[in-house]
Amino acid sequence: FFIMSNNKYTVLITGANRGLGLEFVKQYALDNYEVIACTRNINKKDDLHRLQASFENISIHTLDVENFLSIDQFAKTLTKPIDILINNAGLYPNSSFDHINYEAWLNAFKINTLAAFKMVKAFLPHLKKGELKKIASLTSKMGSIDDNSGGGEYLYRSSKTALNMVMKSLSIDLKPHDMSLITLHPGWVRTDMGGPNGLIDVDESVTGMKRQIDKLSIKTTGQFIAYDGKKIPW
Ligand code: NDP
């Protein structure tokens, strides 16, 4: 089948080749959004390419969010407005008190925290030209300080806590530009990262997160919300 679209709004999604990112691509494409699907390995004939074959409103672009220069270059070549930016790309380096890889820790900060900030900065001109002016970043309940009863997981937890703080500041700084931000906990989802024991599938998670993005407005900017709409303590 081939779905025609009226391309009303444009959404840009990082880490779009698998897991939650891929499901975001599918659901926004079905909603007739123009979907800019970013992946770091464009040559791999994967599920994203198979999905694209069924839609005319999905375009695939190379973007390794670790490479800030390439983020700037991509932003420069993109001329169209963006309505929604979804910072989805992320990684989960395992860690425990006895096993800390400091290089991996820095890298977790680079991908999970700094890259999300960099994406917002680089694509702010496009977002300002967009109608919806929304930015969603995938964080995790594991980044909640209040919710931490299990300890450990220093690398992942701290990089998501930092992401939460960065997005909170951005929500304040970008309010004058009418830009609404949300940090989203997707739930524990069965993906490569979440593993097979996750409590929900990508469909349920992304359906819920999309609903939260739909509801997002300048009045509710700067919140930490789960896929099911529950507010998460910082
Ligand atoms: P996956 O591990 O299944 O997918 C991660 C995605 O991020 C892949 O597309 C991967 O690309 C991409 N990515 C990683 N590093 C880079 C990079 N440098 N540049 C571009 N893309 C990159 O994870 P999920 O889909 O489960 O998670 C998506 C988001 O949700 C993450 O931010 C994660 O922290 C968060 N989250 C997930 C939970 C879960 O239960 N699944 C729970 C809480 C939060 P590639 O294929 O090239 O590696």
Secondary structure topology:
Blueprint: E1 10-13, H1 19-30, E2 34-39, H2 47-52, E3 58-62, H3 68-77, E4 84-87, H4 102-129, E5 134-138, H5 154-173, E6 180-185, H6 202-215, E7 223-226
Helix pairs in contact: 1-6, 3-4, 4-5
The structure holds NADPH dihydro-nicotinamide-adenine-dinucleotide phosphate.
Averaged pLDDT, please? 96
Q: Which stretches are low in confidence, meaning pLDDT under 50 for 5 or more residues running?
A: none
Query: What's the number of helices?
Result: 6
> In percent, how helical is the residue content?
25-40%
- Report the sheet with the most strands, covering strand number, pairing sense and barrel closure: 7 strands, parallel
Our Rg estimate from Cα atoms comes to 17 Å
Strand content: 5-15%
Coarse morphology: globular
Order of helices and strands: EHEHEHEHEHEHE
Bound molecules: NADPH dihydro-nicotinamide-adenine-dinucleotide phosphate
Broad structural category: alpha/beta
Please report the total strand number as a whole number. Answer: 7
Identify the strand order in the major beta sheet.
3-2-1-4-5-6-7
Outline:
The protein has 234 residues and is α/β, with parallel strands linked by helices. It has helices at residues 19-30, 47-52, 68-77, 102-129, 154-173, 202-215, and strands spanning 10-13, 34-39, 58-62, 84-87, 134-138, 180-185, 223-226.
What report would you give on this structure?
The chain has 234 residues and is of the alpha/beta class. It has six helices and seven strands, in the order βαβαβαβαβαβαβ. The termini are far apart. The model has no long low-confidence stretch (mean pLDDT 96). The chain has helices at residues 19-30, 47-52, 68-77, 102-129, 154-173, 202-215, and strands spanning 10-13, 34-39, 58-62, 84-87, 134-138, 180-185, 223-226. α3 packs parallel to α4 (102-129). α6 links the parallel β6 (180-185) and β7. It has a seven-stranded parallel beta sheet with strand order 3-2-1-4-5-6-7, with helices on both faces. NADPH dihydro-nicotinamide-adenine-dinucleotide phosphate (NDP) is lined by residues 14-15, 17-21, 40-41, 64-66, 88-91, 111, 138, 140, 185-186, 188-189, 191-194, 198.
